[in-house]
Amino acid sequence: MVAPNTNEVPTIYDRKSEVKAFDDTKEGVKGLVDAGITEVPRIFYQPPEPDDHYSINITSSDSQAIQFSIPVIDLEGLGSPAKRKEIVAKVGEASETWGFFQIENHGISAGVLEEIRDGVRGFYEQDTRVKKELYTRNHFRPVIYHSNFDLYTAPATNWRDSFMCYMAPNPPKPEDLPEVCRDILVEYSTQVMKLGKLLFELLSEALGLKPSHLLDIDCSEGLQVIGHYYPDCPQPELTLGTSKHADSDFLTILLQDHIGGLQVLHHNKWIDVPPVPGALVVNIGDLLQLISNDRFRSVEHRVLANRAGPRISVASFFITGLLPSARLYGPIKELLSEENPPKYREITVKEYYSHFNKKGLDGTSALTYFNV
């Protein structure tokens, strides 16, 4: 990430008022691009990364990148006990070493994947007046559309707009969903829920537990679907599509388009997660790292800004978020021993999520707050 030239740009400015002015337009980053801007506004400037391992970028154009490759796991053949055991082993290894992997033959058709991508694109490219009706920072609205959930607390604004809705356990009324992508949102969510339950079974087995263990403690109860839109950026070297962070859920299933830009921090280097046609990206969230007592890893990742956009992605988060629930989550007792004592205290999902939202994408881990 290249820092802006501070000799040309004032180092002190009224960020608060500029952020509010941006938010008040209710048009997001796409509104800036539609207005024809040629320079990135100051609120989007990312602070330079410290001169340490985090500053190393490994992309597909770097010769070192071939040393690492995100695991791609074929789920075909789960009906065979021998094949299932092999797949469980691969899922477990990827979850322990990478925290990220891609899956093929996952059961969601190419047509459905294409339709949900087109639906998200259609939402952002519809008439601005229609979108503005959904623009809000009220977390309890059935559909939330805005730019940057942590806009007022983050050190830098991300070059990204988002809309989100909880599709389980209490889905919105169909008429509350955006008309342009209503039907496919419902269909895609149904299929992602089915896939998520399968993955939780495989993850349970990888932990040496019965297949239903993670399902029995409601890891798959909640589903939040987020459609991200990363517009063309005139100066991608100055900003990020999404800042470095780890996910605030149990598990994430991500559909990305052909443009790329997603990177994972692995062995202190940024590694590309290249788009694989028909594949879905899966990553471990903080809550699964917590209940696995660090056996599975919730890994930091980011999205680069680019000139090749707009980039579309659809993230499905398995989390109940701010919904009230008294269930406590802590390290799974079957995984603990004298040699492996609990590293985290028991918490509710709401407690974790409230802390994560307050903290925002500030580049630090939300999990350390809950250490024993």
Automatic annotation (TrEMBL):
Q: Does the keyword Iron apply?
A: yes
**Cofactor(s) for this UniProt protein:** Fe cation
Q: SUPFAM superfamilies under this entry?
A: Clavaminate synthase-like
Question: What Gene Ontology molecular-function terms does this entry list?
Answer: dioxygenase activity; metal ion binding
Key words, A-Z: Iron, Metal-binding, Oxidoreductase
Gene3D superfamilies assigned to the protein according to its UniProt record, in alphabetical order: B-lactam Antibiotic, Isopenicillin N Synthase, Chain
Domain annotation Fe2OG dioxygenase: ranges: 219-321
The answer on whether this UniProt entry bears the keyword Iron reads: yes
Residues in a coiled coil are: none
Q: Which Pfam families match?
A: 2OG-FeII_Oxy (PF03171), DIOX_N (PF14226)
Can you tell me which family this protein belongs to? Belongs to the iron/ascorbate-dependent oxidoreductase family.
Q: What is the protein's given name?
A: Fe2OG dioxygenase domain-containing protein
